[in-house]
Give the backbone structure.
Amino acid sequence: MKTIKMALFALMATFGMNAAAQTQNENKKIINAGFERWAKGEGSFFDLLTDDMVWTINGSAPLSKTYKSKKQFLDEVINPLNDRLSQKIVPSVRALYAENDMVIALIDGKATAIDGRPYNMSYAWFMQMKNGKIIKVDAFLDAIQFADVMQRLSGK
């Protein structure tokens, strides 16, 4: 009886680890596909966000804070940034890592501001996933460059 219980526990542990690994791989594939669509101009990466997601821009940029909904984040960060770009950001993924419900992306983005100057940025996004959607992000970026494009082109 003791051997049967041990075998059952081993089987359950193996199944649990396989399910976790499968979820990690699925999350990584979802994020990668989102970046590929964005790079091709075939939709918005931000469609992966839940409506009630939480996005934190870390650091000391003027927009560094925690945004408590998809709408707030898009209205206060993404749309104003896009308004300052004549050529939108094209992402290039340098690395993707997944563990448990977290996917970490190291991304380079290239764009052109409406004044013709380049907007080239590197980002690190730590994305927590649930049911194939992003529910929480901690984002890191070059605060000086981000602030520059937002302030330099604020009146345009």
Helices lie at 2-40, 70-83, 143-152.
